[in-house]
């Protein structure tokens, strides 16, 4: 083969490789920067506080594992009348000199009502989480801004813990309510049911946030098996005999499962 034929073949090969390998967009790319959208963020509570889980039913559990205070209250487009409870978001700030530019992951555990709905997407972070948006040593300066522009994207939740059920303090032998915590991947809840040891499954109703309830018929006893289904992907999982027959209001019971 003559030199110019070899050269032409080489050039064509490189051109094809460029088209197929370098110039095409990978739709399965893990480059998270492609998915961020604009929002605003504020903070509440003590400067390094862990926030609260009130409107979702998580109470002060948010200060402990697996949340560690990295939580946020969301306005209605995020809280979604309680259906946003337990969902996870990456948030980053880049426009302020005190911003680190690195994303943090937070869980939605509360609602930010009222003026928070003046913006399309408003995250009211715990003082601790807000400080994590800053460069090292710049957290105080960033908090002084009060409200900042941020970018966000929803991401799968990944907790180093199994699903837990926190029994509501208003529960009694004829009425059982609990908050569902630590749900991996989707984080949200579409459907919850319990199956007693001596009866058929009972569909639960959403009380508020991640707290669900059901009336217990006379004679029905635990231990109770709980099945949950998520909103986002309709995944289902069952925690067998997770709530004991002698359950107590205010107690938390850990399953041995998660998504």
UniProtKB/TrEMBL annotation:
One of its GO terms (biological process) is anatomical structure morphogenesis. Residues 1-24 form the signal peptide. Residues 174-255 form the Expansin-like CBD domain. Pfam families: DPBB_1, Expansin_C. It comes from the Eukaryota. SMART domains: DPBB_1. The keyword Secreted applies. Keywords: Secreted, Signal. The keyword Signal applies. Belongs to the expansin family. This is Uncharacterized protein.
């Amino acid at each position: 083969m003559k030199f110019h034929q070899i050269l032409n073949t080489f050039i064509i090969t490189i051109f094809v490789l460029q088209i197929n390998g370098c110039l095409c967009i990978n739709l399965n790319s893990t480059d998270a920067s492609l998915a961020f959208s604009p929002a605003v963020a504020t903070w509440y509570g003590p400067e390094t506080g862990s926030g609260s889980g009130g409107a979702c039913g998580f109470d002060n559990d948010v200060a402990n594992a697996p949340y560690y205070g990295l939580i946020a209250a969301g306005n209605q487009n995020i809280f979604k009348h309680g259906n946003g409870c337990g969902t996870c978001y990456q948030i980053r700030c880049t426009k302020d000199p005190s911003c680190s530019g690195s994303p943090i992951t937070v869980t939605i555990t509360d609602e930010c009502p009222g003026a928070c709905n003046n913006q399309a997407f408003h995250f009211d972070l715990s003082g601790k989480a807000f400080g994590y948006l800053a460069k090292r040593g710049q957290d105080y300066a960033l908090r002084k801004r009060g409200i900042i522009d941020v970018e966000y994207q929803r991401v799968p939740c990944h907790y180093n813990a199994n699903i837990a059920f926190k029994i509501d303090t208003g529960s009694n032998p004829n009425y059982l309510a609990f908050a569902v915590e630590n749900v991996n991947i989707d984080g949200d809840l579409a459907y919850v049911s319990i199956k007693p040891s001596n009866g058929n499954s009972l569909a639960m109703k959403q009380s508020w946030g991640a707290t669900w309830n059901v009336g217990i018929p006379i004679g029905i006893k635990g231990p109770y098996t709980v099945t949950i289904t998520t909103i986002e992907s309709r995944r289902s999982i069952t925690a067998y005999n997770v709530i004991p027959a002698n359950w107590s209001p205010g107690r938390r019971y850990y399953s041995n499962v998660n998504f």
